[in-house]
Structure formats: C-alpha cells, structure tokens
Amino acid sequence: MDAKAFKIILKKGETASVEFKRCREGAKDDTYETICSFLNRFGGDIYLGVEDDGSVSGVPPDAVQNFIENIINMLGNPEVIFPTVHIQPESFEYEGKNIIHIHVPPSSEPHSYKRTYYDRVGKSDIKMKSTNVITSMFMRKHDIHTEEKIYSHIRDEDLRFDLFTRIKIRATTRQEDHPWKNMSDKEIIRSAGL
Q1: What pTM, to 2 d.p., does this model score?
Q2: Phi, psi of 34 (to 5 degrees)
Q3: Which residues contact 103 (CB under 8 A, 6 or more apart)?
Q4: Is residue 150 part of a domain?
Q5: Burial, 109: exposed, middle or buried (Cβ in 10 Å; 0-12, 13-18, 19+)?
Q6: What range does the domain containing 52 cover?
Q7: In the β-sheet with 81-82, what is the strand arrangement from edge to edge?
Q8: Of 174, 34, 39, 36, which Cα lies nearest the Cα of 112?
Q9: What digits encode the pLDDT tens for the residues 156-172?
Q10: CA distances, 47 to each of 9, 56, 96, 178 (Å)
Q11: First to last CA, the chain
Q12: Does 71 reside within a domain?
C-alpha cells in the first residue's frame, strides 16, 4: 500500500468500511466479527496494527507471517466462518512499523461467525439476534446480488451476441480445448446456466 494513501485513511479514521485493530498477539474474536459484518454488508478494509484513534502501533515483525496464515486458516474453517471465504491478507510497512491489511469484499451469501450473524452499522459490528433482522439480511442480499435471480422478461434480443466471440477467445486462451470453442451462442448460454 502506498504510504500517502494510508496516511489519508489514518486521518479519516474508522468508518462503515474501515476498521482499525491493535493486534499485538494475533487476530482476536473482534477481528473475525468485523470480517463477518463486512461480508454481510458492503465489504471493507481492516488494518491490523492500528489503534482506534488512528495511531500506528504495528504488528510484531516476527509474527506477521504467522498472523496472516492463522487468519487464512480461520477463514477457511466452517466452524469459524460459514460459509468459508478465501481472503488473502497482505502486509506492508508504514513508518518502520508492520501493518496487516485485510480487504473484505462484499459477499452474495450471508455469513456467520461461530454460528452468529453480524452486520455493519456505522462503525460498529452488531450481533444479529432477531429472526426478523436475520431474515431481512437474507432478503437484502438476495436483492443486491443478482447472479442467482431469474429475469423471466429478458429475451434473446436483449443480449449482446457480438460479445460471444470475445467470450470464446477468452475461454480458449485459458484452456485450448475449452468446450465453448465449438458451441453456438445459445449452447454457451445453456452451458453457463443462464
């Protein structure tokens, strides 16, 4: 991360999509609660080694790699985060101190941390206890993320068939014998589950 950009983040402080964590002894429960709430809302960035007031305390240099590996392992454990996620934390140095940056993208699925759902409200990670609130989150995610939504009013004329040549080229660039290579446009649509 660029030092100038990070300085701006520190100056702005914590927001609905930025969270600072001290992290002298590794990621604690509150870090995973924030990851869960970011997944359930609009994503965000967590900076380990930064105090709540924006002052940089840093992560112990000899522990950085171990902390990163532990975070990756925890996020891949369905007993911790469900469904599991693949997030790659990165470390960088700022004014001689080590920082771990965790970029959390928004997710199309609702996630729980140790079987509890969290949501980001302002600068806080809120434990969702009410069935109505949890149901609302499921409905909100369904409305925002449309990859599983069926649009029955779309017709062939609404699609850009001129892009299918590029789709075939990209598919065969990655895998020379890709099945789409010899398929018609409509066969590709069916094959993609559209």
Answers
A1: 0.72
A2: -65, -45
A3: 43, 45, 87, 90
A4: no
A5: middle
A6: 3-144
A7: 81-82, 112-113, 116-121, 124-128
A8: 36
A9: 888 888 888 888 888 88
A10: 10, 10, 15, 41
A11: 38
A12: yes
